[in-house]
Design goal:
This protein is mainly α. The protein has helices at 32-45, 47-59, 63-75, 79-88, 124-132, 137-149, and strands at 5-6, 9-11, 18-19, 108-111, 118-122. It is built from six helices and five strands. Strand 1 and strand 2 form a beta hairpin.
Amino acid sequence: MGGQMINNMKKCIKCNTNSAYSSGSSQYSYCKECQSVITKQWRKDNIEIVKEKARLKFQNLSAEARRNTKYLNRYGITLQQFKDMESDQDGLCAICGNAPSGKKKVLCVDHCHTTGMVRGLLCDDCNNVLGRAKDNIYHLLSSVEYLQKYAK
C-alpha cells in the first residue's frame, strides 16, 4: 500500500512521519531521511553492482572525458589545468627537462602525498624516483652525496 496523503504530504511507511519530501512511487513512500538510509544500505549490500555500473558509465565516456575524470578524482585538477601546466613546462619534465617517453608518453602529475597539493608534471622516471624515496628530502640529498662521492 502507498503512503497516505495528508494535506499534500505523504506519510513515510518506515517511520510514520509526514513529509513533503517523501519520494517514491505510489507503491512505496519514504521520507528523505529513511530513503537515504535505505539507499546507503542497498549500495553497501550490492557493492559489486554499484562498481560495475560505475565502470560501464566510465567506459562510455570519451577518452578525454575519462582523463578529465581521472585528474579530478586523483589530483583535484581538470584536464584543461593539466594541459595548461604541460604548456607552461613546454611539455617537459619539471626535474630533468626531458620529454615523456616509454609506453605512456604523457607526463605524470606530481603531488604531495601528505597535502594532496599538485607540484608539477614529471616524466615517469623522475616520478618513480620521488615515489621510491617517499618524498624524503634527506634520502634524496644522501643519494646525491653518494653519487658525488663515486663520480668520476
